[in-house]
């Protein structure tokens, strides 16, 4: 590998991103359903109230589930796409921090929408605001890790003496 050449595995990064999105989405859906089920059991809701509660949960939790899943997927990409040993927890913390700060800044500039009033900018801008910060922060973090100084190899990545002798022959 030449100096300055990126050390990036796109396939490994995409697999990690897909796994991060899937695991996070499933965990959040299960937690949300458990919350609704517990609330319905404790409060002794009627069948109509249970369905109303479930529908309300689906409507209110859609964006947070998509946002959190996207942050986890982007953290997976930033962890496993660049070569070297990187921790998922640090990637998740960096991507989450940058994303939440960007969402707070953009949210403070955008006036609150009233219930039932559609946004003049449409759903496309909302999608860009939701997707932009995590994807941009993961891309920048991955690029810094791929083009930065090489990371030390893990013990499992070091070649064994027998393998080194075979390559020399």
Count of helical stretches:
5
Q: Helical percent range?
A: over 70%
Per DSSP, what share of the residues sits in E-state strands of 2 or more residues?
under 5%
Ranges where pLDDT stays below 50 over 5 or more residues in a row are none
The topology string of helices and strands comes to: HHHHH
Could you tell me the radius of gyration in angstroms? 22 Å
State the end-to-end CA separation: 21 Å
Can you tell me the overall shape?
flat
Mean pLDDT: 79
Structural class category:
mainly alpha
Describe this structure in words.
The structure is a single chain. The protein has 169 residues and is mainly alpha-helical. Helices cover 73% and strands 0% of the residues. It has helices at residues 10-43, 47-80, 88-109, 123-147, 161-168. Helix 2 runs parallel beside helix 4. The two termini are 21 Å apart. The mean pLDDT is 79.
